[in-house]
């Protein structure tokens, strides 16, 4: 076994309690451990991504217990991509948070590492129950991060966030219990073998279990009408936490791809493609709600929040088609939207700290320090978020429109995407005009004297903005990689054989 596979889970799991035990009163030491651990995680995940690029599926059996009896982690192209994306985002965000946000409450860096542990475990696990366990780890850490720094609004929205996710966790347990009772297993590869064998008399219960899982993943992914927790939570959270939470909605998308292709995919008999009828309508509604929210936003933070909601809808339109080209387009857009969404949250903070009493509200204010630089970064972020050429948002939307063209209702879906993009364009244009043009037009007012010693923060935003730029410049290699990832995802036999250690066909019989 390759023991590097478990490092993305073990490393943050060890660093988090060490920070609490050895550096709880020394913020500088916490920052050192947090940044070094995140950078080390980035190096490890980059190595794992390179390892997975050969197309092999690598299981890791904890305690050397064979599947389906033991705990299994599985490294393939999809899990490696999600690990690397999470590590890049985490490293950038923790550097930004070290500019002062981590001082506004206790245990920021420990909670941050615990959330990394939960995220990485969710991407690696090959077991539905352990997916639930890692969901709980990342959610408990996210509760603390969301409330970090306190404040009435943050606590109020945090309580809503906790309540909704506790309800989701309860549904997850119900779903796990139903599926285990019907199949006798929760190992994903073993479920892919056992689900087609469920007798017809139990199919209704099986479909109910699959539907409950879909509800849980839709809550995580913030799909309409289960999105209500997201605007308040992300809007109230501190900017670095909101930026890191940009990966949280992608956990829902990942779980839907993994579970509803591997377990409830084409080989699941009467339960095949269980999620397909529900995802497209929910995704279209999510996209339109998000873009209308962008149009109606009165703050830069709200703009970022609803742009993220809209990007979830766009992503899920491709995920909900459940075929190789659509999955490839979805993965390309997933990476793009994570960088673009996180950059907007950090930009909102940089702008707010320079505008005095105006904060990030979309109202005219006096000129502020580094206005030209921030205007440029906002311009690139807006192009990325809206999906205009030449950045990767445009390429991602073109890819999604291409795969939607094969659907019977393609005219409606195209209209949703294009009208939503128009709303986003108007919203971002209005915001940029108010923030950067109107203050430039009034040079008579003096520039306020505010501290601007946040070079690391500006560099962090620049790195995130560079993500869509690089994805566009290297669109060919990126799309080759996502094509290979989608191809492996839609070849579940290889995953099943790697995990179970024997050649088992999707009908559940040994050849």
N-to-C span: 26 Å
Helical coverage, percent range: over 70%
Query: Ranges with pLDDT <50 over ≥5 residues?
Result: 444-449, 505-511
Question: How many β-strand runs?
Answer: 2
Query: What is the alpha-carbon Rg in Å?
Result: 22 Å
Structural class: mainly alpha
Spell out the helices and strands N to C: HHEEHHHHHHHHHHHHHHHHHH
Strand order of the largest sheet: 1-2
Q: How many helical elements?
A: 20
| Biggest pleated sheet | 2 strands, antiparallel
Shape: globular
Number of domains: 1
Question: What is the overall pLDDT average?
Answer: 91
Strand content: under 5%
Structure description:
It contains 20 helices and two strands. It is an all-alpha fold and 511 residues long. The chain has one domain. α13 runs antiparallel to α14, α14 packs antiparallel against α15 and α14 crosses α19. The protein is globular and about 70 Å long. The C terminus is likely disordered.
